[in-house]
Design brief:
Keywords: NAD, Oxidoreductase
Family: Belongs to the aldehyde dehydrogenase family.
Number of strands: 21
Bound molecules: nicotinamide-adenine-dinucleotide
Number of helices: 15
Helix content: 25-40%
Enzyme class: oxidoreductase
Oligomer: single chain
Largest sheet: 7 strands, mixed
Shape: globular
Radius of gyration: 24 Å
Pfam family, one: Aldedh
Distance between the termini: 84 Å
Strand content: 15-25%
Structural class: alpha/beta
Protein name: aldehyde dehydrogenase (NAD(+))
Amino acid sequence: MTHADIMKAAGLTEADITGGTLAVRSPIDGAVVAHVKETDPAEMPAIIARANAAFKAWRTVPAPRRGELVRLLGEELRAAKAELGALVTLEAGKITSEGLGEVQEMIDICDFAVGLSRQIYGLTIASERPGHRMMETWHPMGTCGIISAFNFPVAVWSWNAALALVAGDPVIWKPSEKTPLTAIATHRIMERALARFGDAPEGLSQLVIGGPAIGEALVNSKDVPIISATGSTRMGGIVGPKVAARWGRPILELGGNNAMIVAPSADLDMAVRAIVFSAVGTAGQRCTTLRRLIAHHSIKDDLVAKLAKAYASLPIGDPRKEGTLIGPLVDHASRDRMMAQIAKARAEGGKVHGGEVAAGVEGGAYVSPALIEMPAQTDTVREETFAPILYVLGYETLDEAIHLQNDVPQGLSSCIFTLNMREAETFLSAAGSDCGIANVNIGPSGAEIGGAFGGEKETGGGRESGSDAWKGYMRRQTNTVNYSAQLPLAQGVKFDF
Ligand code: NAD
């Protein structure tokens, strides 16, 4: 199929892809595939006002009924999976199965949110006063602005939107300026769900297109109480304080620098499979990509040899082609950054395997993944480079390995490969990994939607997706009801008059 066929099959019209100021390139061959119209910043106040008008109606719709909208969204996504997955491949450069996997993730979170819509619950709490009942109620919070990154161009919207909509919040989505096409196609799918739902308020789900300036209009508006922003730590460092300064609620999902500790007892064959998928999958462009390998000195050389062999056999190239495992980087600037970081690591004493410009489709930025043995955890290792670079470090004691794992500014995902129960439990304990995600005998990437997703430190502290992440989209109210004929005060205070 041609690029034009893929866009058409995903429901994009000529008007969607022509006549605009935002040029969209496919990472596959670097070709400009569309010129998309950008939202005029002057329109943002009206867009936000529409969302807030929708909020007034949506917040009183019973949550299970709100869940019905998300159920329909899941149905529409199932029907459109192949076409939307192919568009993700076209616009983000993911291999076919990962493009489809991203849409599957959207379907999964819809299923989760539908169940949640019948399970939004609060506590009842024992009151110290006779004839009193204390409880906790969760209410809708208000409009949720969603700012998303290029590398999960559609799933991140659904993680937020599915929960926000059942929680009673309207959503305004600003996708990455690198991936507006998948956003337009997704929003069209949402519009089909809304049409089938029937009586949802106008403005419940809106899409705005553009760069940071459009994002900032959401970030700076007092009328957007929740800002869920996914992207680089640099972006989060700007957005977080601005939202906090106007008393909004930020949900920040920022960069990671994820590590795996490989202990002497580890099943090395399993570790190799996990390392390769998590270090080179999505061409190293996942927030949870494995970036640091902390291997026990006794097995390090063996592990590096096995990895270098596996790396040499990985098919790199056209992500649409069956069998390809490593597609392109998002653009040439990203490849330049990767090459600059490799040069820096080499200057710091790194021994580099791979990490070269690779053949692929003419015009795309293809690379072979890099494996770099480092003498120490240098400044370059402590930075997130959004490309397939895996730094290898050695360790002697588990304490040393855990120290290395934690001694970076980011705190997203982590894991240990060991068959030693003491080591595994220590890694998961309060004295172990400081990340939001810590796994045993599983790589750091490819989380399921059932768990809360997010991380600490410069990863931003936000949580999305499963567990009780829904609470981030609601406001908590403590209620005390007095059903007695007395008016006792708490803490035994007397105030008789
Ligand atoms: P980016 O920070 O360049 O852009 C992300 C989004 O923020 C885009 O929509 C962009 O337009 C917007 N933005 C940028 N500056 C802004 C500003 N000042 N105000 C408002 N909006 C602004 O990130 P990217 O290159 O698209 O994505 C890669 C990064 O995202 C990596 O660091 C990766 O680790 C991170 N990421 C994190 C998660 C997570 O869940 N933790 C998930 C995916 C990606």
